[in-house]
Each structure stands twice: as C-alpha cells, then as structure tokens.
## 1
Amino acid sequence: MASYSIDFAWVYTMAKKYYVVWAGRETGIFTSWDVTKRSVDKFPQAKYKSFATEAEAKAAFAKSPTSSIGRTSAKPVSPQSVNTTKSISDNEAVLSQFDVVIYTDGGCEPNPGKAGSGIAVYHKGQLAQLWYGLFNPNGTNNTAELNALYQALLMAKNAIENSQTVCIMSDSQYSINCISNWAYGWKAKGWTRKGGEIANLDIIKQAHELYDEMKDKFALKHVAAHSGIEGNELADRMSIYAVDQTNQALSQYQPPLDISKILSLRAG
C-alpha cells in the first residue's frame, strides 16, 4: 500500500487560543487544550470556554461563567462520547464544537473496480479545503474508505499539534471499527483473526497506529451517508472525482470552492 507524505500546515496556522476555566480541577486562563482538558474532563459541572484573544479571556474570567456560556457547558472532546451524526442539525452542532472537522469518503465503480478517496475539511465551521485521489484501478470501496481515513488522521495530527480540536467524520462503520475496535484484538493475536486473512491489513496497521497515538486527543465519528450533510456529500463527490480523474496522488481541489457546482458533480 503506497503512503503519501503531504504538508497539511495550510489550514492550521492561526492565532493562539485562550481557554477560561471557571470550574475545574484548576481554574484560570490557559493556552493549552491538553492542560484545559485535564482540568475539566470528568470534573462534575465543569465550566469553561475558549476565546480568541487574551483580553476577551480576562474579561470573561472576571465575570460569572453564565454570562459567557449560559448555565451549561459543552462536554470535553472525547472519542467515546460521539456516535452517529444523522441529521443536518446534529452536524451543525459538530461544526460548532470543533476547530477542524474532516469528512472522508471512498468510492468504487464497480465494487471491486475503479476506486478513489475524497476528503472535505472544515475550519471554524467553514469549508476550507477539498482533496481527491488515491485512485486504484483494481480497488474496493473498503480500501478507498480506509485510505481516506488514514489521510484524515494525518491532517488531524497536524491540527492537534497546533492546539486545535478535531473531529473526523467517516460514513464507513467498517473503517471506523477496523482502526478503533477490531485492530486491538487482531494486533494482540499477531495481526491474525479467526476465519482467515485480514483484508486491507497494510493500511489498517498504518491508520491504527496513528489512531492509537491520538485517540484521547480527537473525536472519530460516524456520519450517515447521503443524508444531505454537506461535508459528507462533498467528500463523496471528491471520491468519484478521483475515479474520473484517475489521480493516484492525493490532490487538492483548486478554488473557487463553489459548493453548489461541486455538489452537481457525479455522486457515488
């Protein structure tokens, strides 16, 4: 399985964030999400919020938390706390909760057949980048899904290193289970399983290693396919665009990002 080394620093250069913790193991103003998360994670009725500037954070910390966040606060980012996003309103909540949301999809025509992967990246709730490629003339849908998820994990790692919160949204339960669930049992048995060979083992190993390294620092979520959720639909179009363009490398879809025009492309 070929691997691709890509510089994803493009979207992740941004100003430092300031986290105010009114109620937690430690209170105050922090500039590290990891420090903030340790303070509020599983702390009863934790109250905290991020701000773009130090002045805003100081002003907020001097007041009661209800003036900034109301009576409740969002739960800390946790991969275990997220399940399936099924509706557009659910999706909007995800976009508002995370700095970076990455949608992945794979397409194959027929299956097995010509396969490609697509990725849509949202930054602060807005579409930032589209990617397509990893074409395989003799691929499968599952391999294309795993390829896209692996590349999303590379993007997530870059974002995490830049102190940003990340959620990856895949419509493939198979891919999610492979890297976050089944892989642990397979690895414990020397990467074997009852019933025969593990399909797509090379890419599963690579993706699982990244997932296991970062699993406490980002969310991996299943998103319902073809349910009108924009990010999922765009990733789908990119996967089929990859099949049409036969791009073996992962390539950036060039601006302008005309969403209505892109959604009019062939769907998978």
## 2
Amino acid sequence: MNFLTAVSRQMTRFTALIIILASIIAFIEPATFSWVKGDTQVVVLGIIMLGMGMTLGKEDYQILAQRPLDIFIGAIAQYTIMPLLAIGIAKAFNLSPGLTLGLVLVGTCPGGVSSNIMSFLAKGDVAFSVGMTTVSTVLAPVMTPLWMTYLVGQTVEMDGWGMFKFMLLVTLLPVVIGSVANILLHKKHWFEDVRAIMPAVAVVAFACIVGGVAAVHGHRFAESALVMILAIAAHNIGGYILGYYSGALTGMNTAKKRTLAIEVGVQNAGLATGLSAKFFPGNAESAVAAAVACVWHSVSGTILGNLFAWWDKRQQ
C-alpha cells in the first residue's frame, strides 16, 4: 500500500503530463478512449468528485466557519472574474459560437480539484485553497447554469434546469458522500489506504475524460487550434492576474494572494468537458475547447506554483 500511495503522489504531481499522454494516445488510436462517453463519462465525473469529497473532513468545514470573509471574497472573485472574462475574451477574439460556448463553460465551472496541490507548491494558504474549492463546488450547481443561461442562453439552446439537476447529482452528491465517509471512517486503516490512492484514481479519470473527447472530436482540433489555445491562455492567465490583485485590493497577505490567483485561474475544466458532452453533444468545438483547457490549466497552474516557490528562494 505504501507503494501505491507513492505512485498516487507522483501521478498527482505529473497530472498534466498524464493528460497530454492520454490525448496523444487518443489521437493515434481513438478506440482506446472512445468508450468514455454518455453514462460512462457521467460515472467517471462522479468518481473524480467522490475523490475530492474524501479529502474533506471536519477541520475543513471549521475553516469555512472561522474564515467567512476570506471565503466570501474568494467565491465572489471566482464567480465574477472567470465568467465575465470568458465572454469578454470570446468577443475580443471573435470566437465561433462553439469555442465561445466552451470557454464560457470553463469560466463558469468551479475551481479545479488540483488547485490545492498547486497552492501548496506556491507556498500559498492551503487551508484557504481547500475552503475556496469546497465552496465553489457547492455553489456550482446554481452558479454554473445561471451564468451559462445569462451569457450564452440567447445564442445556444440549453437546459439550465437540467444542468442544475445533473450537477447536483454528479458534483454535489459525490462530494457529500465522500466527505461524510471521511468524517465517519477517517480513523479506519482501510479507509486511509483508499483515500491515499484516490488522487491517482482522479488523475486517471481526468485523463479518460480528456482522452474520450480527443478520440471523438480530435480531428476538429486543427481547425481552430491556434485561436483556441490563445483564447484559453488569455482567459487562464487573466484569471491568475485578476485573482492575485483581488487579494491585494482586499488586503490579503502574500500567501492568500497566491492562493486566490490559483483558485480563480485554475478551473475544473474536466467538469466543463463532461458538461459539454452531456448538454451540448452536437457542439464538438465546445468539448474540444474544454478538453484543451483541462490540459492547459494543469500545466500552467503547476508552472505558476513552481514560479512562486522559485521567487521565494531567489529572494532568500
């Protein structure tokens, strides 16, 4: 089990590389991941959120109770900066309706589940990071459909109520189940073992979702690759910058500002990919954009975390 735990840590560390590898394999041999669609994809998403829930215990909810102002500022920043920045960039780049849909969907999703690790690498406030991820995930079933309806509901046919119910089932319910299990069973040795390997399971699940999209829609990537990557990069980097200065404007210390930058900038693009496939199956561009964002956010967030750590060493 110690070996599996060590493997899990390494897989979490190299999440971006694993996702890129899965994408390449899907391009070369689509049948490898073509099974990740429909109900199977829903189950895979649920497993990812269950793994997140299993990391949440009493102490994490105590953080929410003890630091309401920090969490409130973080939630406001998360659910205003990224959705509005997404639609602004889509208009500035004159993106197609499909790419606009994908970028806005990424922007309206909660913070990424790997952001806690990135905050740790950045010497940020990890407790704050966990609190923000928790709150943004709990709010997602309401905020994501609302923002999607407001920002793109006029141009794209969508079922906001259906998305709300789906996200309750696939995001909130698994998180609640995982968290309750952690609170009740955290002292059990077998549960500790299961919890220790769940990060690796989540990484594999993310890779499967991205691989599934690449297998089905990968041939469309070349059609708009450059503008797609530029828009995703601008959205992500803009989130880092605006998140950091949101912390500065509200008087946060350096660790909190770094955490806010990462929490705002890194989105749960894996969830966005699943939502795109579920609710916009005829819009291939949106799914490809969300899948590319999943890879980009994983890579850039890790790089940013390491840059913050490098800066500290340089200052010392």
